[in-house]
Specification:
The protein is mainly alpha-helical and about 50 residues long. It has one domain. The protein is built from one helix and no strands. The longest helix is centred in the middle third of the chain and has 44 residues. It is rod-shaped. The model has no long low-confidence stretch (mean pLDDT about 90).
């Protein structure tokens, strides 16, 4: 029996996809926070100019 049996491949792929999802989720969170910060910054700038 070799190392590349179906069960090991499935385990590996599940682990890989879980890690990829984690990275993707972190990236989405980062973008949302950046949007929020930019929005606050723009609000402050507009209130200073008024």
């Amino acid at each position: 029996m070799g190392r590349n049996n179906d069960r090991n491949i499935k385990k590996h792929n599940d682990k890989l996809h879980k890690a990829q999802d984690k990275v993707k989720q972190a990236e989405i969170l980062r973008k949302e926070k950046l949007k929020e910060i930019a929005k606050k910054f723009n609000e402050q700038k507009s209130s200073e100019n008024s």
